[in-house]
Amino acid sequence: MDAQTGTILVEVAFPNPGGVVRSGQFARVRVAIDEKKGAILVPQRAVSELQGVYNVAVVKPDDTVELRMVTAAERVGTLWVIDSGLRPGDRIVVEGVQKVRTGTKVTAVPTTIEEPVPSAPPAPAVASTAAAGKPN
Questions:
Q1: What DSSP designation does 129 have?
Q2: pLDDT digit string (tens) for 86-98?
Q3: CA of 120: how far to CAs of 31, 36, 87, 117, 133, in Å?
Q4: Highest-confidence range of 10-14, 49-53, 108-112, 128-132, by mean pLDDT?
Q5: Contact 50/98 with Cβ under 8 angstroms?
């Protein structure tokens, strides 16, 4: 690895029918180095950070909010992979995160989180069910 440029020189052999790639050319390549099956993805705007501690507002079955500490990992576009602190199916607050506190009663409105698909996703993952909570 070249510390000055942040690049790694790699030599690759691959079929090149028609001679599309010529000798001496270079390419930018993205490689998936890790795959997290069943990963939980949440929008970056749903995660609040204070002094290195990440929290997500989770809507409990009685429609009250609980602030839950999470471990955020890498980003995939504008989504964050959550390594711990959330379970599949948890409903999270996506809009109005600044207004909610533990115990706040909200009206959960399901929303679809659609993000542009990157040309070469670094880690395919499955998003959990999410609902946008709006304070009453």
A1: P
A2: 999 899 999 888 8
A3: 8, 15, 27, 8, 32
A4: 49-53
A5: no
Residues forming beta bridges with residue 133, ordered by sequence position: 108
Tokens of 122: 């670094």
Nearest to 40 by CA among 110, 133, 123, 132: 123
Contacts of residue 96, Cβ cutoff 8 Å, sequence gap at least 6: 132, 133, 134, 135
Q: How far apart are CA 6 and CA 61, in angstroms?
A: 47
Structure tokens at 17: 């029918």
pLDDT in tens, 62-78: 999 999 999 998 888 88
Distance CA 118, CA 11 (A): 25
**Ordered structural domains, the chain, with CATH:** 36-135 (2.40.420.20)
Q: How far apart are CA 43 and CA 116, in angstroms?
A: 12
